[in-house]
Write a structure and sequence with these properties.
This protein has eleven helices and nine strands. By secondary structure, it is an alpha/beta fold. It has one domain: Alpha-Beta Barrel (TIM Barrel).
Length: 332
């Protein structure tokens, strides 16, 4: 359920960014780097970090992010549901005109947790599922418990919209149509994610890489687009799916533009320069509008030399405007 006053604020944020006003369109907040899974493709586990901020510190950090002009904040990890105070943090962030999302593996969700998140006015719940094979030894499988949770969500009337996020690898590439079809039957959209490969997790992801599968990728992309045209709930359109082929063919030529449209905060409050594990010595509490612009400029020697970055926030902005106008609720 997209709240109109938040939609209006988000639209205004996107329009400002498209008009050249520098502010964080998306804020990604890692409430913790602790996790109850160890996915082979994950790089978050290997980043040196400090202690998780306490609840009041996170509430103050959310206030700073809001004052910078952000109207779209995502709480992630690690696994954010490991924090016992997550609902309180969500409630604080949701008390004004900003979309609030949680990215989770969903394993700790139950009916009470879902009801509490709905009561806290969460806007979007994104649950990671990489394969329907519950016995899979890699990634995030659809366990029996998680399947029951998603079926319950599909039949309930919570105040948030739910999506499934699937990291695309060699192991599940050919399964993608089945995954999209399954969750569409539950009236839950699927969002595809490119597996990040960097110096942190490169050795662990060799067996998952799609670098030699460009022909298969194009076949699957065509199949998925056909399914979407026939009514399947796939959040990715042709503008986004084309990036999947481009990335693994070495034709993906976007970089993050120094994070102009993005603000990424580490679990200890430090600012993340790059998801490849580069953490700044500056804190979220150091930022004002002026200092945010200065922070971006200071890091351009790093970010502007990272070509073909899949975390391309400029591309995300273009995607939102071209594919969806200024509509956050992409499934519509």
């Amino acid at each position: 359920m997209v709240r109109p006053f938040k939609q209006e604020a988000y639209n205004h944020s996107l329009k400002n960014a498209n008009n050249g006003i520098i502010h964080p369109v998306l804020a990604c907040v890692r409430l913790t780097r602790k996790c109850n899974l160890r996915c082979a493709y994950c790089s978050e586990l290997y980043v040196n970090t400090g202690k998780d901020l306490k609840q009041n510190d996170w509430k103050n950090a959310v206030d700073v992010i809001y004052k910078l002009g952000n109207r779209d904040i995502v709480f992630t990890g690690g696994e954010p549901l490991l924090r016992s105070d997550l609902v309180d943090i969500v409630r604080h962030a949701s008390s004004r005109d900003a979309f609030v999302s949680i990215a989770t593996n969903g394993l700790l969700l139950d009916k009470k947790y879902l009801a509490d998140l709905s009561d806290a006015k969460l806007d979007f719940l994104c649950i990671s599922v990489d394969t329907l094979n519950k016995n899979s030894a890699w990634g995030k499988p659809l366990t029996d418990k998680l399947a029951q949770t998603l079926e319950h969500i599909s039949k309930s009337n919570y105040g948030f919209d739910t999506t499934v996020s699937t990291v695309v690898t060699r192991h599940n590439l050919m399964e993608l149509p089945e995954i999209v079809s399954y969750f569409s039957s539950l009236k839950i959209p699927t969002k595809l994610m490119i597996m990040m490969q960097n110096h942190i997790n490169k050795n662990n992801t060799k067996a998952l890489s799609l670098e030699k599968n460009s022909a298969e990728i194009e076949v699957i992309v065509k199949k998925l687009l056909m399914m979407k045209n026939e009514g399947a709930l796939l959040m990715d359109g042709d503008f986004t799916l084309s990036r999947l082929s481009q990335y693994f063919k070495g034709e993906f030529n976007y970089n993050c533009n120094g994070g102009v449209y993005d603000l990424s905060v580490n679990n200890d409050g430090k600012l993340v320069i790059c998801p490849n594990g580069i953490i700044s010595d500056k804190s979220i509490f150091d930022l004002t509008t002026k200092k945010y612009v200065e922070f971006i400029e200071e890091n351009k020697t790093i970010t502007d030399n990272c070509k073909g970055c899949l975390w391309s926030f400029k591309q995300r902005l273009e995607d939102s405007i071209k594919n969806y106008g200024v509509v956050k609720n992409e499934k519509n």
